[in-house]
Design brief:
The protein is α/β, with parallel strands linked by helices and about 130 residues long. The chain contains six helices and seven strands.
Length: about 130
């Protein structure tokens, strides 16, 4: 049995997996980026979580972070599809399923780190 998507346990497990993944650690070695996610329509209502990379470490945690570089908003179904790898984030953005605001230039500068995120968390057992 896995961790429940968007739960405290999921955030803790994602943080652990990311920081133990050598490829991800290499990808974020010089990255300073914070992303705030807002997921609507989840079984428990709106869920806010953030993903912060800096100093060679990554943190995923529920709640809001101050001064996020980028804010990403989507509904639960879109978040699940992206998490499962069934939907590409670029496709979700282009079709309006994913709204992004903030420092988009900084986000684009760190695409390699975000791509590494997906492969690093792939082995996680997640319940949706």
């Amino acid at each position: 049995m896995g961790v429940q998507f968007l739960s405290e346990e999921w955030a803790q497990e994602a943080t652990k997996v990311l920081n133990e993944h050598s490829g991800f650690a290499s990808a974020i070695a010089n990255v300073d980026l914070s992303l705030q996610f807002k997921v609507t329509d989840s079984p428990s209502g709106e869920v806010d979580y953030h993903f912060v990379m800096g100093g060679g470490n990554a943190t995923v945690a529920l709640g809001e972070t101050e001064d996020a570089d980028v804010i990403v908003a989507n509904n639960y179904d879109t978040a699940v599809a992206i998490s499962k790898g069934d939907l590409n984030t670029q496709a979700a953005f282009m079709t309006g399923k994913l709204k992004v605001s903030g420092n988009l230039a900084k986000l684009m500068m760190h695409q390699a780190a975000l791509t590494s995120f997906a492969s690093a968390v792939e082995p996680m057992e997640v319940d949706y």
